[in-house]
Amino acid sequence: VLSLFPSSQGLQVIWSSVVKIGQSLYREGPGMDPFRPDQRTPVKNFFLAGSYTKQ
User: Fold this and answer.
1) One Pfam family this chain carries (predicted)?
2) Both ends of the chain: CA-CA distance in Å?
3) How far apart are CA 55 and CA 44, in angstroms?
4) Could you tell me if residue 19 is inside a domain?
Protein backbone atom coordinates (compact mmCIF):
# COMPACT_ATOMS: atom_id res chain seq x y z
CA VAL A 1 0.00 0.00 0.00
CA LEU A 2 2.79 2.42 0.85
CA SER A 3 4.33 2.10 -2.61
CA LEU A 4 1.00 3.16 -4.18
CA PHE A 5 0.05 5.74 -1.55
CA PRO A 6 3.24 7.11 0.05
CA SER A 7 1.29 9.81 1.85
CA SER A 8 -0.43 7.07 3.89
CA GLN A 9 2.77 6.59 5.91
CA GLY A 10 1.92 6.91 9.59
CA LEU A 11 -1.87 6.76 9.12
CA GLN A 12 -3.94 4.41 11.25
CA VAL A 13 -7.15 2.62 10.22
CA ILE A 14 -9.86 3.74 12.63
CA TRP A 15 -12.86 2.02 11.03
CA SER A 16 -13.51 -0.76 8.52
CA SER A 17 -16.45 -2.81 7.30
CA VAL A 18 -16.94 -6.03 5.34
CA VAL A 19 -20.24 -6.52 3.52
CA LYS A 20 -21.16 -10.03 2.46
CA ILE A 21 -24.01 -10.53 0.00
CA GLY A 22 -25.68 -13.90 -0.37
CA GLN A 23 -26.32 -13.46 -4.07
CA SER A 24 -24.17 -11.80 -6.68
CA LEU A 25 -25.07 -8.26 -7.70
CA TYR A 26 -24.46 -9.21 -11.33
CA ARG A 27 -26.40 -12.03 -12.89
CA GLU A 28 -24.93 -13.35 -16.10
CA GLY A 29 -27.43 -14.47 -18.69
CA PRO A 30 -28.44 -14.14 -22.32
CA GLY A 31 -28.55 -10.52 -23.48
CA MET A 32 -26.71 -9.09 -20.45
CA ASP A 33 -23.46 -8.12 -22.24
CA PRO A 34 -24.60 -4.54 -23.01
CA PHE A 35 -25.02 -3.93 -19.26
CA ARG A 36 -21.52 -5.04 -18.24
CA PRO A 37 -19.31 -2.10 -17.17
CA ASP A 38 -16.01 -1.29 -18.86
CA GLN A 39 -12.80 -1.93 -16.96
CA ARG A 40 -11.79 1.72 -17.38
CA THR A 41 -13.37 4.35 -15.16
CA PRO A 42 -13.34 8.15 -15.27
CA VAL A 43 -11.01 8.12 -12.24
CA LYS A 44 -7.32 8.28 -13.21
CA ASN A 45 -5.48 4.97 -12.53
CA PHE A 46 -8.62 3.30 -11.14
CA PHE A 47 -9.91 0.21 -12.95
CA LEU A 48 -12.63 -2.36 -12.36
CA ALA A 49 -11.69 -6.03 -12.39
CA GLY A 50 -13.75 -9.16 -12.45
CA SER A 51 -15.58 -11.53 -14.72
CA TYR A 52 -18.55 -9.16 -14.80
CA THR A 53 -16.60 -6.45 -16.70
CA LYS A 54 -16.23 -6.00 -20.46
CA GLN A 55 -12.78 -7.15 -21.50
Assistant:
1) Amino_oxidase
2) 26
3) 18
4) no
